[in-house]
Amino acid sequence: MSYKYYADKTSEAQLTFVNDHVFANINNQEWLIDTGAPTSFGLSNSLEINGHEFELYSNYLGLSAKELSMHTGHVVHGLIGTDVLNQFNVVMDYDNEKIAFSNEEVAMKGIEIPMRKFMGIPIINVGIDGQNRKMFFDTGAQISYWQGSCINAYEPVGTMKDFYPGFGEFETKVYSIDIELEGKPFNIRCGVLPNALEMALSMGGTEGIIGNEIMKNRVVGYFPKKDQLVVS
């Protein structure tokens, strides 16, 4: 899968998956790429991408870069959330380990998925069991999450520990779920969030979270200015 853009108005960085998290190496610093976080933060006061400089907070909901490094098992300089990501057209290329930030529209072929935003966080429609469900698209999530009693119809395939800013670590059962995005089938791992976090989902009118598993072995275009996600 290929994409094209105006090179003089685009910057590229190395993209890697480590411990099921997505990182970009920008100016020799590792950053977690997180469309599920509305606020960027880091060890420095600012971050420059593609000629744009962004002020950074020192933490998000009490989560600092040092603590983020501990949770992810990978040393990071900070986290890039949607307050920064939504200023660009972003292409994440898993196979070629590249992430591109463009000021111009990107031409890319793939599954075109409409999205809307709540507090800057993207929401997409996901088909499960023949029903359309609204879910956050969160590149910071190792697995997906689906709330409600419907998940009880599936057999758990294991358990895992995860973490969430402002809440800390938690453990969840993990289920294997078949979903569709604009008619394209995917199989994902789904967990169940603690009640306190489930309430945050309901505020956005969503039933769950689609994590970064759908990005693996694919090219994903995140185009917030035209409210579109494209998956190769």
What layout of secondary structure does this protein have?
Elements lengths: L2 E2 L5 E9 L2 E6 L2 E5 L7 E2 L3 E4 L2 E4 L3 E2 L2 E2 H8 L5 E3 L1 H4 L3 E5 L4 E5 L4 E2 L2 E8 L2 E8 L2 E7 L6 E3 L9 E9 L3 E14 L2 E8 L3 H9 L4 E3 L8 E5 L4 E4 L1
Parallel strand pairs: 4-10, 16-21, 17-20
Antiparallel strand pairs: 1-13, 2-3, 2-12, 3-4, 5-10, 6-7, 8-9, 11-12, 11-22, 14-15, 14-23, 15-16, 17-21, 18-19, 19-20, 22-23
Plain-language structure description:
The protein is mainly β and 232 residues long. It folds into two domains: 9-105, no CATH class; 108-231, Beta Barrel (Cathepsin D, subunit A, domain 1). Helix content is 9%, strand content 52%. It has three helices and 23 strands.
What is the gyration radius calculated from CA atoms?
17 Å
How much β-strand is present in the residues?
A: over 45%
Number of domains: 2
CATH architecture of the largest domain: Beta Barrel
**Shape descriptor:** globular
Order of helices and strands: EEEEEEEEEHEHEEEEEEEEEEHEEE
Largest sheet: 17 strands, mixed
